[in-house]
Amino acid sequence: MSTKREFELIAPCHFGMEAVLKRELSDLNLTVSAVSDGRVTFFGNETDIARANIYLRSAERILIKIASFRAESFDELFEGTKAVSWEDYIPKDGRFWVTKASGIKSKLFSASDIQSIVKKAIVERLKQVYGIEWFSETGNDYPLRVTIMKDIVTIGLDTSGDSLHKRGYRKLVSKAPLAENLAAAILLLSPWHADRILVDPFCGSGTIPIEAAMIAAKIAPGLTRRFIAEGFTHFLPARCFQEVREEAREQAEPSVETDIQGYDIDGEIIAAARQNARAAGVEHLIHFQKRPVKELRHPKKYGFLITNPPYGERLLEKEELPALYTELAEAFRGLDSWSAFIITGYEDAEKYFGRKADKKRKVYNGMALTTLLQFLGPKPPKRREATPAMLKTPEKGNQK
Predict the structure, then answer these.
(1) Where in 124-268 does DSSP place strands (E)?
(2) Against a cut of 0.90, is the pTM above it?
């Protein structure tokens, strides 16, 4: 029986959501080794690479950490890269390139130069190992990412390919869609659970309700998509992804009961949201409706309003924001004992919402700096559990 190989893995995520990703990794029983701005590093074997790609909701991608060394000059970058056993990862016909590079607080900071030097160093290493002068690059893709932070170079091999936020269900989008993994991270950050009410009054193409429904139904976000590492068959057995997918299918509970609702004033975008939910396999778990925010109401207590309202990126929209956020605040006040989680780039959101948020968190939505405003309602009372004595049926003759 072969021993599984251990890797150090890197999972980038949205700035501000590192704690959520760390908790997800812990739930998968994976050992976290480091947490830094926008990334969490952890250990795992071949199967764990598949599990991380298929199960993680808040991650951007999964990288195998290939090398880490100090470089203050391009010569040191070249030699440090060349010293790596690239033949352990890239076969003779592999197509490899540096898809992204960055230098932060480092002497080396030119992305294009970093990309070029690293590529040349890998070529030189593989030419010596394979005894060839020219690479056909007709095989699988091996995209690499390089970051240099305070002169420490980290090179990672991307196992995901397309970003993990691309679940595969969102064919139609609204004007300013929220990334699927950021929507999931907000849901996981909140105290919302599948047995609680959730309403998104600005649902757009349905991302927040759909991610909530997938969480409720325990549908793994990467279940139906492909990953570039599925072609790394010389060191990642194909059965790893097959076995994890089968496990994920068995764990799904699509018949779970939910109260998840999505509203928008645009009827066409509501139709698109329904189509996206259908593609995700959760259309039956969400109630979508064309409805303005001022008509938001719900008779039940202890629900959640989780939403991504307009930011006002265009001048006309900006003029409409005070009224919009005031309507949202009035609707929220009419919801008894509810909590609200609002991600917004509008600097006056709290002013027109009429109260200070109980908690705030700075979050990057793509390149835009936004704030997650958290208005926390009371916790619902704990349900009284039936004791054995309460459930016991009185014996005949003892009934009074």
Answers:
(1) 141-149, 152-158, 198-200, 260-264
(2) yes
